Amino acid sequence: MNLTKNKSVISWIDEMTKLTKPDQVVWITGEEEQIAQLREQAVAEGTLIRLNQEKLPGCYLHRTDPDDVARVEDRTFICCKNESDAGPTNHWMDPKLMYSKMYAMADGAYKGRTMYVIPYSMSIVGSPFAKYGFELTDSIYVVLNMHIMTRVGKSVCDALGDDTGFIKGLHCQCNLDPKEKYIVHFPEDNTIISMNSNYGGNVLQGKKCFALRIASNLGRQEGWMAEHMLILGIENPRGKVRYVTAAFPSACGKTNLAMLIPPEGILKEGWKVWCVGDDIAWLRIGQDGRLWAVNPENGFFGVAPGTSMKSNPNAMISTRKDTIFTNVALDTSDNTVWWEGMNKTPPAHAIDWRGREWTPSSPEKAAHPNSRFTAPARNCPCLSPEFDNPQGVPISAIIFGGRRAKTAPLVYQSFNWNHGVFMGSIMASETTAAATGAVGVVRRDPMAMLPFCGYHMADYWQHWLDMGRKIPHPPKIFNVNWFRTDDDGNFAWPGFGDNMRVLEWIIARASDEIGAEETALGYEPYTRDINAKGLDVTTSVMRDLLSVDRNLWLEECKGAREYYKKIGERVPVELWEELEALESRINRGYHIR
Ligand code: GTP
Ligand code: SPV
Ligand code: MN
Questions:
Q1: Would you say the CB of residue 482 lies under 6 angstroms from ligand 1?
Q2: Is 460 exposed, middle or buried (0-12, 13-18, 19+ CB in 10 A)?
Q3: Fewer C-beta within 10 Å: the chain N or C terminus?
Q4: 499: Cβ below 6 Å to ligand 1?
Q5: Closest atom, ligand 2, to C-alpha of 434
Q6: How far is the CA of 383 from the centre of ligand 3 (A)?
Q7: What are phi and psi of 357, to 5 degrees?
Q8: What is the mean pLDDT of residues 353-381?
Q9: Measured at the alpha carbon of residue 63, what is the angle toward residues 101 and 43, in degrees to the nearest 5?
Q10: Stretch (H or E) spanning 121
Q11: What does pLDDT average to over the chain?
């Protein structure tokens, strides 16, 4: 039965039904009864393994095809009319050609299968910022994950009414052929098609496909921003909460920072951190002239390895009920889950992510490095009371960051908005297991949006500059690096909860409460201004963490120059000027630490 009378929705679904030829069509209503029945069916079909329901109530394990474990950037396409509008960082194909290719693959793809129609909302249903979509899929796993990650069901259809501005999404598992995977976006007609995958960001279309690649296009047209950013609130001992967003590339610490618990001493002073979002922020200018952020998601699709009661208790607790685990190990002693970094003692016997017997002496990892949990946001102990506020939260600071073993110091602040945009545009980070391909290779990843910007990167930078001119009270912009290593290759900064010490400085700077040292890169903290009480970091290590190597930075400028050339003639002149100014400050030896 249809959940909507919206003629354009119905006619598009009719068209897709004729094409894919399912045995039956099932609308996802959002009611618990239907979801529970689908979980049962997934268990019966072997798609989900029911975990220990006493220790992990409502939790299930899923194993993907071993060739389908991460986003596939080389199979991801932006199909707009003009190739030049997709820009040099996106793969492009002519929309007509791509549609015919996709429709040929979709022809009969649901034969003998069920088409699930998922009406979903990014952001709170009925709020002025919400955007609605429909994902058609033949995967119960996708239905169950979308049900956690977004707001799903009849209320979405009711809120949409007769509006034609919805996002169309088609997903076909086909036979998961790695060579035939396609993650395709048609920004000019708000359509997404995923083929031959059943993994995370490839197929949970609300996430990267819609909330970033399509939404970045909408934001540019409508004057707002869709960003790969966590959102968190920092409450000071006087009860005042200030909000920051942070853009780090995939698997570089967003979920961890978003749920941070301050170190003992700072906690005792009365500081607290509230999580609003861990991956995506939609930012708009509020009537008060500040930038306001909403998290369009409703759950966390977080990296499992490294998550522990020590590193991120709030994430651990979030996964103790109603969670779907993907590609982690199964601890056979009590039918629970395990992954590397969860605790010191691995289980004596487990089933690894590929479904094979595993013991601590096995040469391979028990959990895939990109194994994940899908957990409802409501499970998070530090979820912000503002999470469901349709207006979002006002942003005091924007933080960029990445994995850099050497170049980037622990923290610095931009001189102004344009300089901050420049900092974001030349961001670089070591690649991680979140996408297929080599791991640990430094690449430019502007604003952590390289794989997610749905149009020309230079136009995106221009949009940032334009927004800066329009925001009467813009957030201050910072850069952080939790991943500096010492001479032995160990992380020099303890990270995790101790990142609060850096956040404290950022908040103080954003509120104009303390001074800073003006250096070639921007404003850097005086060493004494990073709260080191109870911290196991000597002053000399602290100085190293904040130091800037002149030669490395000259190399960095060279790299940025080459990158701008690659992005081409649309690179805004303001950014070229910032690059030249930085290079000249470094050359002059201007306050290099
Ligand atoms: P996506 O979900 O892919 O967008 O990743 P994310 O940015 O949310 O990254 P996440 O917080 O899941 O962290 C990824 C990995 O980085 C995990 O293995 C963490 O343990 C590790 N990590 C996070 N924060 C820190 C930190 O402050 N220091 C160090 N050394 N590692 C960290
Ligand atoms: C990322 O890779 O940035 C993720 C996971 O958050 S995915 O949903 O696969 O994009
Ligand atoms: Mn992400």
A1: yes
A2: buried
A3: N
A4: yes
A5: 2
A6: 18
A7: -60, 140
A8: 98
A9: 100
A10: strand 114-122
A11: 97
User: In angstroms, what CA-CA distances link 174 with 109, 118, 197?
Assistant: 6, 19, 8
Nearest CA to ligand 2 atom 7: 201
φ, ψ of residue 464 in degrees (nearest 5): -60, -45
Q: Strands 114-122 and 24-27: what pairing?
A: parallel
For the chain, the first-to-last Cα distance in angstroms comes to 67
Beta-carbon contacts of residue 239 (< 8 Å; ≥ 6 apart): none
CA of 251 to the centre of ligand 1 (A): 5
**Ligand 1 mean position to 309 CA, how many Å?**
14
Sheet arrangement for strand 357-358: 336-338, 329-331, 350-351, 357-358
| Domain 7-30+75-222 bears CATH identifier 3.40.449.10 | yes
The pLDDT-based confidence of 388 (bands split at 50, 70, 90) is very high
CB-based contacts of 334: which residues, under 8 Å, 6+ apart? 52, 55
DSSP state of 475: P
Fold of 227-295+387-587: Phosphoenolpyruvate Carboxykinase; domain 3 (3.90.228)
Report the DSSP beta bridge partners of residue 547: none
Residues annotated as catalytic are 252
Render pLDDT for 254-304 as a digit per residue (tens, 0 to 9): 999 999 999 999 999 999 999 999 999 999 999 999 999 999 999 999 999
| pLDDT tens string 165-224 | 999 999 999 999 999 999 999 999 999 999 999 999 999 999 999 999 999 999 999 999
What residues contact 118, with CB distance under 8 A and at least 6 apart? 28, 134, 135, 136, 137, 142, 143, 146, 147, 152
Q: Over the stretch 33-85, which tens digit does the pLDDT of each residue have?
A: 999 999 999 999 999 999 999 999 999 999 999 999 999 999 999 999 999 99
Q: How far is the CA of 256 from the centre of ligand 1 (A)?
A: 6
Q: pLDDT tens across 133-163, in order?
A: 999 999 999 999 999 999 999 999 999 999 9
List Cβ<8 Å contacts ≥24 apart for 489-495.
Answer: 489/405, 492/537, 492/541, 492/544, 492/545, 493/410, 493/537, 493/545, 494/535, 494/536, 494/537, 495/253, 495/256
Q: Is the CB of 250 under 6 A from ligand 2?
A: yes
- Ligand 2 test: best mutation among 208, 213, 298, 449, most atoms within 8 Å of CB? 208
The correct answer on CATH 1.10.8.80 for the domain covering 299-379 is no
Domain-wise residue ranges, the chain: 7-30+75-222, 227-295+387-587, 299-379
Q: Is 526 in the pocket of ligand 1 (CB under 6 A)?
A: no
- The closest alpha carbon to 120, from 298, 374, 351, 341, belongs to 298
Contact between 203 and 171 under an 8 Å Cβ cutoff? The reply is yes
Ligand 1 neighbourhood includes 305 CB (under 6 angstroms)? yes
Q: How many CB atoms lie within 10 A of CB 341?
A: 14
Place of tokens 């349709």: 390
Ion ligand 3 nearby residues (CB, 5 A): 250, 279
